[in-house]
Amino acid sequence: MSGSKEKLGIFVWKFPSPANTFIFNEVMGLYEKGVDFKIYTFSKESDSDKSFYQDKLKLIEDRIEVIGQKSHNYFNGWYWTKMNKMKIPIAENNSKRLLSIKDKQIRDFMYEISAKRSEKFISPFADKVFLKDGITKMYAPFASLGADVGILLKYHYDVPLHFTCHAYDLFCQFNYGQLKCDLADKIFVISDFNKKYLLSNFNVDSKKIIKKRVNFIPNSEDIEKKDLGYEYILSAGRLEDMKGFKYSIKAFHKLSLLNKDLHYVIAGEGDKRWEIIKLIDELGLNDRVHLVGHVTNKEIISYIKGSLFCVLSSIETKNNDKEGIPTFFIESMSCGVPCIGTKYSGIPELIKNGKNGFLTKEKDVDDIHKKMISLHDLMKSNKSYNIVNNCVQSIEDFDNQKSINVLCKGLKV
Q: pTM to 2 decimals?
């Protein structure tokens, strides 16, 4: 491959996806820099996904191949079933769960055995598509499914592999973890916390690890702030355990007793919706806490602009899942709106106490309540102007072009 023009193979679960706009931003950044690439996506986009990206998608449509649909014999349902029967872990299949054992040495050994016997399943895709496309390097925007396929290709075909570690993909779905760390050419991480996690759990060569923040493009200039007719604080995210809504709602209940005019708006849908509704009812907050359901990206920005401040009382779940650095916080600060977040994972790398928000202890309702009072008072004081400026300055590290430059340098493309 030496001397030939580089061509990047990008493996992603679903492309494009409005839920992961940063991946689309990355891909378009590579396109604008003239990088030659091919996107292999396991799931076909919907018409609404296409319309979300509109004209930009037309520029790269011929570089996208869906390798998980029925017309392919590579990564369709039959293929996953076969891999499962042969006990080859991939994504969240049963074989992956069988290898979720505590003894890391045994787990790593079994992953290595699985990688060895995966050749007959990975070779049809490699021979008929991957190598024919002239791919010289691989990149997976997440360390999970795309990187799972990538590590098997790396193992058998020695094509350079790069991937990015975020949160769930690292803490819960890091199949072939040690093998990925040993064989990857570069590993991108979104936070110093993730870097320390890899160093302490997988003994990675630190020279392999590159910090690359989630790339973010502000798009709020033409969006008006939401006027609900009352002052409110805001949360946004899936209604699930990790977001810790029950803690922020209980903390707001205490705040509501002191401030009769403040409301709490929560945007998002999820499995815990009815549990949250029950809690709101038990606390007598039906007229103060408002679940507005799923809203578009533009609507989220509108809600953010109209809020006094934003909050997520995130927790670590039973399966060790936790936040990376919530995009919601980055979006909020881009609008000059401060945030309250849990002091864990990568969040302290963005939120600085008293400067652009406050950090709280995990699951500590009293501490969350105190920080809500402190931030409320700050935003009502003559110091609010400084807080707004600090917020905007805080996200300079997340600049899209800066992130693209880091990616290209690490990929050497």
A: 0.93
